[in-house]
Amino acid sequence: MNSDTPANPLEMLAYMISQQIENDSVVYVGTGLPMVAAILARKTHAPNITMVYESGGQDPILGDMPWSVGCPLTWRKSAVLMEMAYSFGQSFNGYVDMAFLGFAQVDMYGNVNTHHIGNDLTNPKARLTGSGGNNDLSSLTEKMVLVGLQTPERFPEKVDFITSVGHLEGGNTRQEAGLIGKGPVAVISQWGIYDFEPETKRMRVKTLTPGIPFEIAEQTTGFELLKPEGEIPESPMITEEALHILRTSVDPNGVFTTMPS
Questions:
Q1: Contacts from 134-138 at CB under 8 Å and sequence distance 24+?
Q2: Inside any domain, residue 58
Q3: Which CATH number fits the domain that encloses residue 20?
Q4: Into how many domains does the chain fold?
Q5: Which positions are catalytic?
Q6: What is the pTM of this model?
Q7: Structural domain contains residue 32
Q8: Could you tell me if residue 55 is inside a domain?
Q9: What is the phi/psi pair of residue 259, to 5°?
Q10: Which of 84, 129, 168, 187 is 20 to 30 A from 162, alpha carbon to alpha carbon?
Q11: Per-residue pLDDT tens for 35-70?
């Protein structure tokens, strides 16, 4: 892609996700934009992260963009290859600092549905992929970042099915259920970045994409969206340097960052 072309929404999302990753942290990497974001973070502001893949690859030496977490490139010169159960066990034993999840639905408390759409379990409107390892990560990882497109249907007041736990019913209900870790700490969509109010654990605007007013985010959310006092900061926009690295070194073939036609 021409480096003079402005960043598309997928490239912007990948950059915003990458900015959640701190240097020297252990990151559980999933297929798609989280994979792009983790590699971008390593090539920019977080060179010392350890990348853990669901299929068992531990911190492989970077090569071409893997096509999924099961791609052999996720094992490239890895120090250790684990079975998947041991890979999830890393989260339970406190070795993973952050993981990412996509969603079909996410509610005001960060509970995620990737199971089915509709209230009738035996006759749903749509049957989805289910959990895979998502519930393991949401229940056990220290911090979760949720990533997806924002519409009222995708951001309902209550998900149709809790596939992966967030803050359950808010407050201390996650801890009372015996789950470890902080749960979801951020939700990233095309409109901005959201966090969770510390006491109620309700979703709250943290930053908004430049040019997007609060009213747009509010209208595309199926529940009352909290906002901080005062002016809402703008989400960080991708730099020219980061965009160049993304296009030439991270995902040069646009495997996950090409907009569908």
A1: 134/101, 134/163, 134/164, 135/163, 135/164, 135/165, 136/88, 136/91, 137/28, 137/88, 137/91, 137/96, 137/99, 137/101, 137/164, 138/99, 138/101, 138/112, 138/164, 138/165, 138/166, 138/183, 138/184
A2: yes
A3: 3.40.1080.10
A4: 1
A5: 54
A6: 0.88
A7: yes
A8: yes
A9: -70, 135
A10: 84
A11: 899 999 999 999 999 998 887 888 888 888 888 878
